[in-house]
Design brief:
Arc Repressor Mutant, subunit A, 9 helices, Tetracycline Repressor, domain 2
Length: 189
């Protein structure tokens, strides 16, 4: 039962991040949305910060599980990079609450450790992309690190654009076109 309640709380928080104009999410509002008392919420999580941290951990694990799967696959380097880019954008589109976490918009100064984890997340993502790009270094227009930085910068920008549009301007709308522009700027052919 405890695990079920924890998941309900995390799902409720993700849902609140999607539906709100991001006025402050209180533990009282989260408990109400979860259908439990505030005291019960604190039985599952010691602090609001820990709720955000666990929600971010779920997001982090989902994305990096897929990244590592792609990195180990036998497909061409260019396909690995493209599939990582596509997966990330579609994941954010389907999980709008995570978009707010990854943009750090949902985090207050009390969640600084989660904000630090988000920064590390993007550094790790850039590293994974750089490793994938290095597999076909002779096909790149510039260094793998610069290309990885370009992709991550575009991903972060697309998250911000998605949020700014109040989740109406879906990242998948032009995903193929944006990839083609990226591809032209990253690869020689």
């Amino acid at each position: 039962m405890k695990k079920d309640r924890k998941n309900i709380i995390l799902e409720s928080l993700a849902g609140m991040l999607e539906e709100r104009n991001l006025s402050k999410i209180t533990t009282a509002a989260l408990a109400k949305k979860s259908g439990i008392t505030e005291a019960a919420l604190y039985r599952h999580f010691p602090s609001k910060r820990s709720i955000y941290a666990e929600l971010f951990t779920f997001c982090d694990e989902a994305i990096f599980t897929k990244c590592n799967e792609l990195k180990k696959s036998k497909i061409a380097s260019k396909e690995k990079v493209k599939n990582t880019y596509m997966f990330f954008m579609l994941f954010v589109e389907k999980n709008k609450g995570f978009a707010r976490l990854l943009s750090r918009e949902a985090l207050s100064s009390n969640e600084q450790n989660v904000s630090d984890n988000v920064n590390q997340f993007f550094e790790r993502l850039e590293l994974v992309l750089r490793q994938m790009l290095k597999e076909s270094e002779n096909e790149l227009r510039t260094q793998a690190g610069i290309s990885a930085q370009l992709i991550v910068t575009l991903l972060e920008g697309n998250i911000s654009r998605f949020i700014r549009s109040k989740f109406k301007d879906s990242p998948s709308s032009y995903i193929e076109n944006i990839w083609k522009i990226l591809e032209i700027n990253i690869y020689k052919n």
